[in-house]
Design a protein that fits this description.
Blueprint (H helix, E strand, L loop, with lengths): L5 E10 L3 H13 L5 E14 L2 E13 L3
Antiparallel strand pairs: 1-3, 2-3
InterPro entries: Dodecin (IPR009923), Dodecin-like (IPR025543), Dodecin-like_sf (IPR036694), Dodecin_bact (IPR050049)
Protein name: Dodecin
Organism: Methylacidimicrobium tartarophylax
Length: 68
């Protein structure tokens, strides 16, 4: 059994729908350029109000396994 080594990145996902969609957007976008994504952690939730409507932002940490 080989030992795995992981790298951690942080991205910010956004959505005008809800927090869950912002997380999904972050993961979907990161998965286009980073392979071996294994896990995620929501570090922070914040937002803005545009014309009375919320816009969600989530800071997401993601771990991916480095190639051997």
């Amino acid at each position: 059994m080989s030992d795995h080594v992981y790298k951690i990145i942080e991205v910010v996902g956004t959505s005008d729908v809800n927090v869950h969609e912002a997380v999904r957007n972050a993961i979907h976008r990161a998965s286009k350029t980073v392979h071996n994504l294994s896990w995620f952690e929501v570090k922070d939730i914040r937002g803005a109000i545009h014309e009375g409507e919320p816009h969600f932002q989530v800071e997401v940490r993601m771990g991916f396994r480095l190639d051997t």
